[in-house]
Amino acid sequence: TQGNDEKGFYWRLRSAEQGNCFSQDVVGDMYLSGVGCEKNEQKAVIWYKKAEKQGNQDAINSLEEMGIEIE
Q1: Residue 25 buriedness (CB in 10 A; 0-12 / 13-18 / 19+)
Q2: Residue 65: how many CB atoms within 10 A of its CB?
Q3: If you ran DSSP here, which 8-state letter would residue 71 be given?
Q4: pTM of the prediction?
């Protein structure tokens, strides 16, 4: 349900803000799809890049699929 998605986004975002690269990738996924939050591709890229800098392969794959250059 939407309420559960929003709660999930809230807690995942808190974890991502603390530097958890797995949560950063999931927050990127949530922003990209609009699950639990307003869809926002720019914010998705920001979170994917944070996770990518820590070596998160899922984030790297997502950036490559979006055609974003990996640093």
Answers
A1: buried
A2: 10
A3: -
A4: 0.94
Find the angle CA(70)-CA(44)-CA(32) to the nearest 5 degrees: 120
The Cα 13–Cα 30 span in angstroms is 10
Q: Show the tokens assigned to 44.
A: 């998705």
Q: Exposed e or buried b for every residue in 41-55, given b needs 16+ CB within 10 A?
A: eebbbebbbbbbeee
Distance in angstroms (rounded) separating the CA atoms of residues 35 and 19:
21
Within 1-71, strands assigned E span none
Bin 70: left if φ > 0, else alpha if -120 < ψ < 50, else beta. beta
The per-residue pLDDT for range 24-59, each reduced to its tens digit, is 999 999 999 999 999 999 999 999 999 999 999 999
